[in-house]
C-alpha cells in the first residue's frame, strides 16, 4: 500500500492531463486505468482513430474529385482496408505510447486495473487498497443505447462508434442513426470510401445546437457529397437477418412507417457517463438526474476530497473540455486557482469542409435579449479557399451591437478547426469585432475570411 497526494481514475484526456499537471505542481500522483493502453476513449476509440480515417478517406476523395482538375492525371488509388486500419492503429499506438512516456517522465504511477472507491482517501485496484489525500474521477463516457436496437460490434452489422472504427469490410450501404458529430464524421468516412450512406435523424435539422444557417449549409454540402438525409424520423427498431439490417422508423410529421435496408447500421445517438463499478452509490457521491457525477464550481463532488471531470460530469463531451478541467482541478488540489471559461470552448466537426464554432449562435445571442450584429463572409470571396476547392462555406461572426464585443463565431470552411482559435483568443481578451478587423492577416490565407467577417460587422467586407 502506498500513500498518494492524488489518485486519478481514468487515463483519458481529462485524467492523464490532470495527473501530469498535478505531478508538475509537486504532488505524488497515481493514475488508474483499466484499458491495456492509456489515452481513454479519445486516443483509443474516439478523436484520434476517427481523425486518421477522416484524413485517409479525404485524401482518397481528393484524388477522385480534384486531382484531375489540377492537371494531376493517372490511376487513382484503390483502398486497401486492412492497410488503412494498420495506419489508424499505428497513429493510435504512437499516441498512447506517448502518454506512457509522459507518465514516466513525470513520475506518475500507472495502477493497471479497474478502480473502486471505498471511501474518501481509499481506492481499490485489484486486491490492493491505495491511500490518497484526493481522488479525481475521470472515467469518461460510453455510447448510449437505443431502445429496439441491439449493437453487436463483433458481428459488424449494427455497431456503435467503436465498432464503426474497425468494421471487417467497407459496407456498400450504411444507415447512420443520429446526425450528430459522430454520425456525420464517420458517415463521411464511409461515404468517401464508397458506401451509400443514409443518415436518419430524430430532429428536423442536423447537428443540434449549432447555428441555424450553419446547419442548413452543412447539410447541403454533405448532400452534394452523396449523403442522404431523413430528418424528423424516430427509429423504432433494427432487425438483422442474414447479415443485413433493416432500419424501421416513423416520420414524426405524419406517423407514417418506413424502412431502409443496409449492410451496416451505425448507432450514433449520443453518449452517457461511464461510472460502472466505481461504487459511487455506496459512498454517497451524488449524481445529476441525467446520471452525471454532480460537482460544484471547483469540480468537487458531494463527498469532500473526491472530484470529477470530463465526460463523467455535465457539459460538452469534448476532449479539450476534459483536458481544461483536468488542469484546473489539479491546480485546485495543489492549492492554486484553477479556472475553466465554459463560454469559450470551441467545437469542431472534422468533415471536409470542417465546421467550427465558439460562443453564442445567432439564435442564442438574440434569445439572450441583446442587440446583435452579424458579419458574414463567404469563402467564395477568399482566394485560398477557391484554390482548395472548398469555397462553399462562410465565416459568421456575432458581435454585441452596442459594445461591438465578439460573442461567437461559426465557420464552415477549410481548416475551420484551426481558424476558430483566433476568435477564441479574441473572446478570452474581450476583443471587439473591430479589434479583429484591424489586425493584419497574411495573404493568401483562409483566415482572411475571419477578418472579412469582422469587417462586415463594421463598414463592410472588402471582397464581398
Ligand atoms: P475518456 O476519454 O472516456 O477516458 C476515461 C478512461 O477511464 C477510459 O480509458 C476508461 O477505460 C477509464 N475508466 C473508466 N472507469 C474506470 C475504472 N473504474 N477504473 C479504471 N479506469 C477506468 N472529442 C473532441 O474534442 N474531438 C474529437 O474529435 C472527438 N472525436 C470523437 C470521436 C469518437 C468516435 C468518440 C466516441 C468521441 C470523440 N470525442 C471527441 C469525445 C472525446 O473522446 C471525449 O470527450 C473524451 O475522451 C472525454 O475524456 P475523458 O477523460 O473524460 O474520458
Ligand atoms: P450527438 O449528441 O452529437 O448527436 C446525437 C444525434 O442523434 C442527435 O442529433 C439526436 O437528435 C439524434 N438522435 C437521438 N435519438 C435518436 C433516434 N432515436 N433516432 C434518430 N436520431 C436520434 O451524439 P454523438 O454524435 O453520438 O456524439 C457523442 C459525443 O461525442 C458528442 O457529445 C460529441 O461532443 C462527442 N464527439 C465529438 C467529436 C468532435 O468534437 N469532433 C467527434 C465525435 C464525437
Structural features:
14 helices, 464 residues, alpha/beta, Enolase-like, domain 1, FAD/NAD(P)-binding domain, 25% strand, 22 strands, 3 domains, 7-stranded mixed β-sheet, 5-stranded parallel β-sheet
What does this structure look like?
The protein has 464 residues and is of the alpha/beta class. The protein folds into three domains: 3-143 and 272-333, FAD/NAD(P)-binding domain, CATH 3.50.50.60; 158-269, FAD/NAD(P)-binding domain (3-Layer(bba) Sandwich), CATH 3.50.50; 347-456, Enolase-like, domain 1, CATH 3.30.390.30. It contains 14 helices and 22 strands. The protein has helices at residues 13-24, 40-45, 47-65, 81-105, 161-164, 181-192, 212-224, 280-283, 319-333, 362-367, 383-387, 416-428, 433-437, 448-456, and strands at 3-9, 29-33, 109-112, 115-119, 122-125, 128-137, 141-143, 158-159, 173-177, 196-200, 228-230, 233-241, 244-251, 257-262, 264-267, 271-273, 306-308, 347-349, 354-359, 372-378, 394-400, 406-413. The strands form five sheets. Strands 1, 2, 3, 4, 5, 6 and 17 form a seven-stranded mixed sheet that branches. It has a five-stranded parallel sheet with strand order 8-15-9-10-11. A hairpin with a 2-residue loop joins β12 and β13. α1 (13-24) packs parallel to α9. The longest helix has 25 residues, at 81-105. The termini are far apart. The model has no long low-confidence stretch (mean pLDDT 97). Bound molecules: flavin-adenine dinucleotide (FAD) and 1,4-dihydronicotinamide adenine dinucleotide (NAI). Flavin-adenine dinucleotide is lined by residues 9-15, 32-35, 40-42, 46-47, 50, 114-115, 138-141, 161, 182, 274, 277-278, 310-312, 317-320, 322, 350.
